[in-house]
Design brief:
The complex is a heterodimer.
Chain A lengths: L1 H4 L8 E7 L2 H15 L2 E7 L1 H10 L8 E3 L3 H9 L3 E2 L18 E14 L22 E3 L6 H14 L1 H12 L3 E2 L3 H10 L4 E6 H10 L3 E4 L7 E9 L5 H12 L1 H9 L3 E2 L26 H15 L4
Parallel strand pairs in A: 1-2, 1-3, 6-7, 6-8
Antiparallel strand pairs in A: 3-10, 4-10, 5-8, 5-9, 5-10, 5-11
Helix pairs in contact in A: 2-10, 5-6
Chain B lengths: L6 H25 L15 H6 L1 H34 L5 H13 L2 H12 L4 H6 L4 H4 L2 H37 L4 H29 L3 H10 L4 H10 L5 H26 L4 H4 L15 H27 L16 H8 L3 H33 L4 H9 L6 H12 L13 H11 L1 H13 L2 H9 L4 H28 L4 H6 L7 H10 L3 H29 L1
The chains are: A alpha/beta, B mainly alpha.
């Protein structure tokens, strides 16, 4: 009880980390780091949308030292706003170049796919467009890209790769009765009980965790290609514990930290740490937007178009 | 504190921090959109953009129609049951009263999540009986029904108590003068209890428009967006829009205040706490041949409103996997075991919620007691103290949360509770302050002023008289209020989600986050533990009250 109350932010050796799920991973990294350095880690864990909202609401009075998001795009955006400070971790040497830059580096990587309930009585889908078939009428859900960073990455990736065809696909899904609901797992929940048959664009690691628990669901990576969502870690310029923050990034990229990432069913960022699941090299990956000069506008416009398509305010 | 002249200003200052400050910042933010960057430029700049948006009108429409729908459902269930309870000897009446208290304990968001698991396609009813009500559940009607099932006990208790207190004696007179039982009911009992019925329906309406959890849980699947959800979305989802959140907050407060003021006006001069003391001439009548049908009616409603959601919650908590469904080999205590081994996370959440609830009970009781005492003594500023201390009864949790963020997340404060557990203590205390104010206020109205005066005549100082006379006499009411505050604070959802600092989880956040991450079983196991704890507390509270009386 006492520890729950010892959260005042004044403590010099307390690092504040804002992170998108999974919650169990952030707890384990915080505990491991505390054991190594003696520094306490206060974690605020929520969806990417909520984490970013809190960061922005606190802009004039910043509190977070380290941010871990589930959308690569958020790192590009914050970098352009000049909110990040550089850190070159020695442990990042074996992280592939596409997953690091001066100011941010991947913690781990998720892939998006179709999450399908094997007991749903529907034919096993092979590609995104299979979900527009009559067999999947009213049977598909999708995470809300405004809340789920990974779903936003999928939307941007599909749009980048297929242009108008991507919107045609979404329109067909809408006409087939696809619902858009909440962050990742909220879209997954109805599929677990069998109320829906499949998730369009669910993150894989949550599902691998569920499969390990014994749930009868399956992750399918569409044949025409999917996107991978690297989860960027960054140190905020406003951090008053920059040194400690750098140590934390180093810890997450250490073998021990990357092992914890792998145990959460993510692909580790480091190529030399084994994953417990298929790696992105084995998947068909859509070409993704690079460091676009106006990614914030692109994201805003894409979200707006998506919300209009699905009539959301 | 020999001299009590400082007490009124001190109470006012406490109310200023708890209640006025957050509301003032909501108003400031609504007027000055660039308040966050410390600028007062472009006053009223966000007003036209927010109000010209057709979505805003749709939000208000959905909010009001949902509130009216909930009041209607609560009336259809609560009025007949309450009237039967007051007029007749119902078999096992104490059991029904106890069962209908349970919806107060069951946080609406947990009820909604339980109903989803029960009624969605392939849910528990589909597995057991082969039908599902997914279409109804994920619609505005579903949202209304779930909230109505949660709030009808308000009407039930108001009607049964109101009728017993006001109606029976006069109805007896009507009968003596030759009226038939039906005529006595329609012409005497019902009109006399109409204000109580109307007031309880307005309360159900107010609670419905302030509810965040149910529409958020049924979420976008239901396509129902209420003002509370829109406010939360504008402040807690990227990209944020604080001026929009503040403007919608003001609209919601205006709606809630209107309903609340109407309710107060209806009840003015009718204090049900005191009228129960009147001698009742007539015994409730016997049901005769209607015994069985009436019992079946009570049983059916208790089954739907109480047993079904609790059973669904327990089924999910006791299932190893969700896709495994209801089967014997899927039965397991693994979810309860996982509460113990997630690195102490669940226990820390329990500890945090219980400590915060205890702290809130003490703080709200202290401020509430002083406010009620100031009002009963008619000190200068008593009217202001009364208004400020009861205002939170009409303030939606989401608005208080928005106000606290806007007020304390500013760069100019040398020290701020924002980012610590203190901010949750402030928000719970603000929201729950009306409980001690009302309970203690009612007690003071029954205590003669002569008692304290007598102490003063014998030379006791004013503070000594308060400490030794007023406080002990009001203590049973104060204790009951503290228990209520504790029970509600330990389950509060929306301001906890908005305000909890990094590193702190409450019970409600733990359950909500587990649902967000697909760990339904763990969430429901925690919900079961929390509800068992508050049921124990409530039974203890009832026993305590019986002892005091």
């Amino acid at each position: 009880m006492a520890s729950a109350f010892a959260t005042s932010s004044g403590h010099a050796q307390t690092l504040t980390v804002y992170t998108a799920g999974p919650g169990s991973l952030s707890k384990r990294l915080a505990a491991g780091f505390q054991e190594k350095t003696g520094a306490k880690v206060d974690v605020f864990q929520a969806t990417t949308g909520k984490v970013m909202a809190r960061l922005e609401a606190e802009a004039s009075n910043p509190r977070a030292d380290v941010l871990i998001s589930a959308s690569w795009d958020t790192a590009l955006d914050l970098d352009q706003r000049g909110w990040l400070q550089p850190h070159h971790s020695a442990n990042a040497a074996s992280v592939p170049a596409q997953f690091k830059s001066d100011n941010y580096v991947a913690q781990g990587i998720a892939a998006l796919g179709i999450i399908w309930n094997t007991g749903s009585g529907t034919p096993e889908p092979k590609d995104w467009s299979d979900l527009t078939a009559p067999a999947f009428k009213q049977q598909v859900t999708m995470p809300d890209p405004a809340l789920s960073g990974a779903a936003l990455d999928l939307l941007l990736g599909l749009q980048q790769a297929r242009k108008e065809e991507a919107w045609k696909l979404l329109e067909n899904l809408r006409d087939n009765g696809m619902t858009v609901s909440g962050p990742n797992a909220q879209a997954l929940t109805p599929v677990l009980q069998g109320a829906k048959a499949a998730v369009f664009g669910g993150v894989d690691y949550v599902t691998y965790g569920n499969i390990a628990k014994g749930e009868t669901v399956k992750v399918i990576f569409p044949s025409s290609g999917t996107v991978i969502a690297a989860r960027p870690m960054m140190i905020l310029k406003s951090s008053r514990h920059a040194e400690l923050a750098a140590k934390f990034i180093d810890y997450v990229l250490s073998e021990e930290g990357q092992k914890a990432v792998a145990d959460a069913w993510l692909m580790p960022a480091r190529a030399d740490v084994d994953a417990r699941r298929p790696l992105f090299k084995e998947l068909t990956v859509l070409p993704q937007a690079g460091s676009d000069s106006d990614s914030a506008t692109l994201r805003g416009d894409t979200l707006k178009r998506f919300n209009t398509l699905f009539e959301r305010h | 504190m020999k001299n009590l002249s400082l007490l009124a200003p001190a109470t006012l200052a406490a109310l200023g921090v708890l209640v006025v400050l957050p509301m003032a910042f909501v108003v400031l933010q609504a007027i000055f959109p660039e308040l966050g960057s410390g600028s007062l430029r472009q006053p009223f700049g966000a007003v036209s953009a927010t109000f010209s948006d057709s979505a805003t009108l749709a939000l208000i429409g959905t909010t009001v129609s949902t509130g009216l729908g909930v009041a209607l459902v609560a009336a259809c269930l609560g009025v007949p049951l309450g009237a039967l309870r007051a007029q007749f000897r119902i078999p096992a009446a104490a059991l029904w009263d106890l069962l209908f208290l349970v919806p107060f304990l069951l946080p609406p968001y947990i009820a909604a999540l339980s109903w989803i698991l029960a009624l969605q396609p392939n849910g528990y009813t589909a597995q057991l009986f082969g039908f599902h009500l997914g279409g109804l559940l994920f619609s505005q009607a579903g949202v209304v029904l779930i909230m109505g099932l949660g709030s009808f006990p308000l009407v039930y208790f108001a009607v049964s108590r109101g009728m017993a207190a006001a109606g029976l004696r006069l109805a007896e007179v009507a009968r003596v003068c030759g009226a038939t039982p039906w005529r006595a009911f329609w012409r005497v009992t019902l009109p006399l209890s109409l204000p109580a019925i109307a007031a309880s329906l307005l309360l159900a309406f107010t609670l419905a428009i302030e509810e965040y959890g149910v529409p958020a849980a049924l979420g976008s699947q239901a396509g129902v967006q209420m003002l509370t959800n829109a406010i939360e979305r504008r402040l807690a989802d990227w990209p944020i829009d604080p001026p929009g959140a503040a403007l919608l907050s003001l609209m919601l407060v205006a709606l809630a205040l209107t309903a609340y003021a109407t309710q107060r006006a209806l009840l003015a001069g009718r204090d049900y706490e005191t009228t129960t003391g009147k001698p009742t001439a007539g015994e409730p009548a016997s049901l005769g041949a209607w015994r069985l049908p009436v019992c079946l009616l009570f049983g059916a409603i208790a089954l739907v409103a109480v047993v079904l959601p609790l059973a669904s919650m327990l089924a999910a908590a006791l299932s190893d996997t969700v896709s495994g469904g209801l089967s014997a080999h899927n039965l397991s205590l693994s979810n309860f075991a996982s509460l113990l081994d997630t690195g102490g996370e669940a226990l820390a959440a329990l500890g945090a919620s219980l400590s915060l609830a205890a702290g809130t009970a003490v703080l709200a009781a202290a401020v509430g007691f002083l406010a009620a005492w100031c009002v009963s003594k008619g000190v200068p500023g008593a009217a202001l103290i009364d208004a400020c201390s009861l205002l939170p009864a009409a303030l939606p949790g989401i608005v208080v949360g928005v106000g606290l963020i806007l007020a304390w997340n500013q760069a100019f404060w040398p020290a701020t509770p924002y980012g610590t557990w203190g901010i949750l203590l402030l928000s719970y205390s603000c929201l729950l302050l009306p409980y001690p104010v009302r309970y203690v206020g009612a007690a003071f109205r029954r205590i003669s002023h002569n008692l304290e005066a007598a102490a003063r005549v014998h030379g006791a100082s004013a503070s000594r008289a308060m400490w030794h006379i007023a406080l002990p006499l009001a203590l049973p009411s104060l204790a009951a209020a503290m228990l209520m505050v504790f029970a509600v604070a330990s389950r509060e959802l929306v301001t906890s989600l908005l305000l909890a600092p990094p590193g702190l989880q409450t019970i409600s956040i733990f359950i909500w986050r587990n649902f967000e991450q697909g760990s339904i079983g763990a969430g429901m196991a925690m919900a079961t533990v929390a509800i068992a704890a508050s049921l124990t507390l409530m039974l203890a509270g009832l026993a305590l009250q019986r002892k005091a009386a």
